[in-house]
Amino acid sequence: MNAVPIVVTGGVASGKSTVTRCFEQLGVTIVDADLVAREVVAPGAPALTEIAARWGESVLAADGSLDRGAMRERVFADPAQRQELEAILHPRIRTRMRALADTAAGAYVLLAIPLFVESGDYGWVRRVLLVDVPESMQRSRLMQRDGSSARQVDGLLAAQASRAARWARADDVLINDGPLTALEAAVRRLHNRYLQWSATAATEPASA
Question: Which burial class, exposed, middle or buried, applies to 111 when counting CB atoms under 10 A from its CB (0-12, 13-18, 19+)?
Answer without folding.
Answer: buried
